[in-house]
Amino acid sequence: MNRFIVLGHRAYTTGDFKLDDICGGAGRLDILVRCVNSAFFLSHDLRKDSEIYLVLEGGTDAPKTVRFYGPDMKYLNPDERSTASLIRNALLKKLDGKNEIRSSPGVYISRRSFEDVMKDLSDKCRFIYLREDGEDVREYEFPEEPCYILGDDRDPTKEEERIISEYPYDKINLGPVSYHANHCMTIVLNEMDRRVTRMEG
User: Fold this and answer.
1) CB neighbours of 51 closer than 8 A, spacing ≥ 6?
2) Which pLDDT tens digit goes with each residue over 158-175?
3) pLDDT tens digits for 12-28?
4) Whether the predicted model's global pTM rises above the 0.90 cut
5) d(CA 123, CA 197)
């Protein structure tokens, strides 16, 4: 399973936003929507071995985490509006503590924070922090169960970096320039696809 954790520092945690304004009116939720699409969509197929955790830290009901799980996924379409609708529907669910509930097939929501998500995943995967000062991705040996950590249009805060540092992790970079979060995901998945193809060939 390829896992991603994306920090939405301003992303709204309530469902009272308009789908026509997910950039300004939902705390740059558009960035997280594009990350969902990058995690799952191929040209004529859907990746079933991907999972993405959107940690929403903005709005008046923070934090919340929306999880998209490939093996159970239905109703996910490539347009940003429909993906934002799935997130909004999840945010409208009534939550019981930090227990995760399903809002639609393959989409789950909870009140988990970034710290909670890291703790829950710590025994399931190897954390990989995408940073410009990390090891070159083309020299990196991918683990069997990678979990990539990315910020939205802002880098993780000092507190978030402290949380990351509590667990073993690798640090990799994707090239000489900075990319959008969803582009980083595409590059990583492409690199992994290429290696799998070489091994199978």
Assistant:
1) 1, 2, 3, 4, 39, 67, 68, 69, 70
2) 999 999 999 999 999 999
3) 999 899 999 999 889 99
4) yes
5) 28
